[in-house]
């Protein structure tokens, strides 16, 4: 199994702070059947800046440390970048790190409290240039929670999405779990990932999440979501069904 979103790289953001914590994450990943994990440190989110070349060097160093300790997890370079207006230009100038540096898949981070007005146009222009933006954990974003139709528009314009495994397991509450399921039902989810920052007693939630998906949606959907993680690493096209409008079920309410 492959995990395309993690904060396993030590001392770069709010994830692992030491090599020992990175090892804990790797061992927890192995316990869930994960043998490849993408390091996606935060970039340009107002708190952390992690440039492409620095990430690649740190990933190489972490892989060497794992090899010395006989830990059979491959760490792959990536970046979780806060969306900004000039992102498309910086991609073309090779200043951003795509997943596995394959010049295709870009993990995007939306601002915590809103979806910028230029997001749809930026995503559309990025995919015209051959890039495939992946929106990280949309089910946890307040504006999308209030208006899931917004996510439909983004996907329709070329975005893929990554839902957090823990969301499907109820870690962020029943409403987030319910929305996650609704998004899968509407073909608005393309890959599941851990977004692990630290190891908990319940691990990375990946096995539990896929068990939940298989129970509700069957093996075909489950395997498609698993396979898409592999396709992302290889820079291949993802399996996806045409997006549908989310069903109008009241999940979140404004107090």
TrEMBL record:
<dbReference type="Pfam" id="PF19567">
    <property type="entry name" value="CpsB_CapC"/>
</dbReference>
<keyword id="KW-0378">Hydrolase</keyword>
<dbReference type="InterPro" id="IPR016195">
    <property type="entry name" value="Pol/histidinol_Pase-like"/>
</dbReference>
<comment type="similarity">
    <text>Belongs to the metallo-dependent hydrolases superfamily. CpsB/CapC family.</text>
</comment>
<keyword id="KW-0904">Protein phosphatase</keyword>
<dbReference type="GO" id="GO:0030145">
    <property type="term" value="F:manganese ion binding"/>
</dbReference>
<dbReference type="InterPro" id="IPR016667">
    <property type="entry name" value="Caps_polysacc_synth_CpsB/CapC"/>
</dbReference>
<dbReference type="GO" id="GO:0004725">
    <property type="term" value="F:protein tyrosine phosphatase activity"/>
</dbReference>
<protein>
    <recommendedName>
        <fullName>Tyrosine-protein phosphatase</fullName>
        <ecNumber>3.1.3.48</ecNumber>
    </recommendedName>
</protein>
